[in-house]
Amino acid sequence: MDAKGYAGRYDLLRDLALNLFWVNRYAMTMYEKRPTRWRDVPAPPGTPPDIEWVQTYASGPMSEVDSIIWPNPEFDNNITVYGPQVIALARRYLTQMIDELRGLPRPDGVSGSLLDSIDLIVPHQANKTMVLQLAEAAGVGPERLYFDIEKVGNTSSASIPIAIQDAVREGVIDRPMRIFAPGFGAGAVAGYVVARIDPAIVAV
Question: Which residues are CB-contacts of 117 (< 8 A; sequence separation ≥ 6)?
Fold first, then answer.
C-alpha cells in the first residue's frame, strides 16, 4: 500500500488469499514428485530416511470438488468457501488416512502399525475445532495433535512447516520424532507425509 500498488487493504488481502490458494494447490500436487526436506542433502549411509511415507489424493463428489470456488461470479469473483462441504471432504480424507496408517507396518520392524509409531500429529492448521472433532471420530486423541493456529492463523499449505518449527521452538519436538502431517486443499485434494523430524536441523 505504501508503494501505491493497492487502493486499500481489501485488495491487498484479496490478492494475498488468492496467492495462498494457488500455493496450496501447487504444494499438494508436488508432494509425490519431490518431497521437501529441511536440509536437501543425502542421509549418511546406513541411516533411516527422514521421509518415510507420502500419499496424495484427488477425488470426490462434485459437492466437495466445488467446496472452494475461485473466481465466483456470484460473489464479485472472489473466493467462496462452503463450510459443510469442506468438513465433509476433510472427514473423508482424514478417516482414509488414519485407516491406511493403521494398516501399514511400523518402519522399525516392531509389532504394531505405523499409526502406533507416530510421536506427534501436526495437521494443516485450518480449523482446530474441526480437526479435533474429526480426529476424535477417527479414534485419535487430542493429546497426540499439535496446534499453533491461535498464534499464526491459517497460512494454507505453509501451516504445517510453520507448526513444525513452532513445535521445535516450544520444546514439543525435543528429540528426533516421527511426525504425521495431513493436509487438505481445494479441488478435493489432500495428502500426508510421515517423516522423522530432528530438531537439531530445524532452524529456530
Answer: 106, 107, 108, 110, 178
pLDDT digits (tens, 9 = 90+) for 78-94: 878 888 888 888 888 99
Q: Is residue 144 part of a domain?
A: yes
Q: Residue 132 falls within a domain, yes or no?
A: yes
Q: How many domains does the chain have?
A: 1
C-alpha cell at 156: 494454507
Contacts of 82 (CB under 8 A, 6+ apart): 66, 67, 68, 69
Host domain of residue 185: 9-37+47-201
Give, in order, the Cα–Cα distances in Å from 52 to each of 7, 117, 151. 47, 12, 29
* Percentage of the chain lying above the pLDDT 70 cut: 78
5 vs 162: which has the higher pLDDT: 162
Closest C-alpha among 119, 116, 121, 120 to residue 105:
116
In the structure grid, which three cell numbers stand for residue 92, read together?
473423508
Residue 155: inside a domain, yes or no? yes
Query: In the predicted model, is pLDDT for residue 31 greater than 60?
Result: no
> Bridge partners of 182?
192
Asked if the structure places residue 42 within a domain, the reply is no
